[in-house]
Amino acid sequence: MTTPTVVVLGAAGAQASGLLRGFARTDTELKLVLCDRAPATGLPDSVGDHVVEHRAFDLLGEPEKLSQVLAAADLVINLTGPYYTLGPIVLDAAIAAGTNYLDICDDADATELLLARDDAAKVAGVTALIGMGSAPGTTNVLVKLALDALPDGEASASITWCVDAADMVGAVVPHFAHSFATAIPELGGTPSWDGLAPERVSFPDPIGEQLVVTLSHPEVLTLPRFTRVTDAHNKGGLIPEDFTHLGWVASRLPESESRTAAMHTIFEAARASHSEREPVGSGLIVDVRVGADGICFRSGGAMSQDDATGTPAAAGAIAFLRDQVPGPGVVSAEVLVPAEFFAALRVVSAGGGGMTAYRTVNGEIVEHVRIRDLISPPVAVG
């Protein structure tokens, strides 16, 4: 069997580090072509027992090099951002090369641009799995898992998350501001603070009560497209909550060449003022309901966003190599079979996710349910 070639774009970035740690845990033999604008010396020389090659080029300035590297690949994993700029460029190149595609896109407007390439991908026989990180990504699979266990009928899904400001580095800063500016698309700009419907939500320990607001996120678009969810909502925030307010302020900065640099300056100054604070991690609540019946997933823990995002991406890549991603076309993670995804996730994960699940009635918890029983329901005896 030929060793599959997997191209990783943005391989020197933070999320790529989590992806590559995941790949290092799998016995599936891979040829990894690690690409970044940074010199090749900034890329890891080894990833487990896999064959590793380096490429250094600029996606925008040297498109011919992107085409060359994709022509020899079985799968490209696009970890470059911002996705509303680079996502369509890389997906178009993958479609032209006939190469399957995976990304961790978490911009709603970019997701619309990528989904618009569905017909072109189908004609080319290319499958593109978009938003295959933590949220979106694992969140979408959890919604599908809940839907499989709930009665028939129209469903709602509410996704609520918080992330430690310690993880707000690099391209994540302008992305966070962008999610405010596109939170309510029909407004054509950043909503007022009250328009974001701020509220305090209690996450599992050690996260506790945190401020969250309405933010644009791909699940709101993809869940109604690929599942029976008809009502989807997303709220998120940063820890400590000062940074959530800063994200809203940064999103209101006027457009200019120095806008992104100004955002980084604001966040770096805020981080410096909290330099003695110990990071607490991140929290997630996924609440799925059909009528009065529901299933709610809750987690809180100290896992970094590098691993929280990169590990599911590695699992998505393994699913690709196992021919478990429906296609061709542009799809998102809720099309995956949950049992197959979580089997792949176990292969690439270090463990310690800390997720719990509950059955609910009218939003109130009535009993704890084991996630493994949702994945593989117990067989009745007698």
TrEMBL record:
Q: Which PANTHER family match?
A: CARBOXYNORSPERMIDINE SYNTHASE
Note the Pfam families from the entry: Sacchrp_dh_NADP
Query: The Saccharopine dehydrogenase NADP binding domain covers which part of the protein?
Result: 6-129
SUPFAM superfamilies (alphabetical): NAD(P)-binding Rossmann-fold domains (SSF51735)
Could you tell me which InterPro entries the record lists for this protein? NAD(P)-bd_dom_sf, Sacchrp_dh_NADP-bd
- Its name, as the record gives it, is Saccharopine dehydrogenase
Superkingdom field? Bacteria
